Amino acid sequence: MRASINAGPGNDTVFAQDATARQSLAGGEGRDTLLSGSGADVLVGGPGVDTLNGGVGNDVLDNVDQASGDSAQGGDGRDSCTSDPGDQELVCES
């Protein structure tokens, strides 16, 4: 089972750290913060300066938006991160 959240336009914060199901979190336009739980999750920042944190699990973090200033932390697990040149912080295991 996968839970999906699309935050849409605007500055959003999505806290989903307590969830154990696989999650798909999308920030949309704006300055977004996405924090996922212990599943194998997919986080997509979208346009704007975003902060992604995958938490525990083998996660995919996508901060490609043709802009700089994003940050991504995979957390525990084997994670995959993509970002743009000039993004501030990228901490992933793979």
From TrEMBL:
Cited PROSITE patterns: HEMOLYSIN_CALCIUM (PS00330)
GO MF annotations, alphabetized: calcium ion binding
Region span, Disordered: 54-94
SUPFAM superfamilies xrefs: beta-Roll
Gene3D superfamilies recorded: Serralysin-like metalloprotease, C-terminal (2.150.10.10)
InterPro entries reported in the protein's UniProt record: Hemolysin-typ_Ca-bd_CS, Hemolysn_Ca-bd, Serralysin-like_metalloprot_C
Protein name, entry field: Calcium-binding protein
Source organism of the structure: Streptomyces phaeolivaceus
